[in-house]
Here is the input.
Amino acid sequence: MKLTVELLKEKGALLEGHFLLSSGLHSDKYVQCAKLFTDTALTLELGKSLAQKILSKYKELDLIVSPALGGLLIGFSTALALNVPFIFTERVNGTMTLRRGFEVKKHSRVVIVEDVITTAKSASEVARIVEKRGGEVKGIASVIKRGENGLFPTFPFLLDITIANWRPQQCPLCKKGIPIVYHGSKKLP
Ligand SMILES: [Zn+2]
Here is the structure.
């Protein structure tokens, strides 16, 4: 299946407003993938599509790892389509960790799956955890690539969205006096 901006809008996953991103930049759009994943059948289809893209690039894999919470649903559905195990990392006091007895076998071939990749900060932290345990990180895959900076052009993704970001001083919405309603993912209703 092909993920489109229209489908994101239809599912309420592309929000428009005045947003403060975790990077400190302001933006007039925000992607809330969790809204996309409320459609369970669609989430399985997205996993299949991402699995196909992953397979065409990395051939054989042993494990999918995703950072919680954002990567959980798409990581699971992608691993299901690939017929490989799925585990996740989580932040404990801000530090990305692997808990719950999850293991990464030495030399296992791993792809990290995320919902949205902007700077790949979380995915990079997951990669370090996997590599520390002797796994081989083949790549990072995501439902949405939100990079206007051209990062990771070769990694698999389903939809590339360019969303304008501004420093607060340059933000046209601030200049118009429009208040910031949402503050990144943490304070979304
Ligand atoms: Zn602003």
User: Anything to note?
Assistant: The radius of gyration is 17 Å. Residues 18, 26, 168, 171, 173-174 surround zinc ion (CB under 6 Å). The chain has one domain: 5-183.
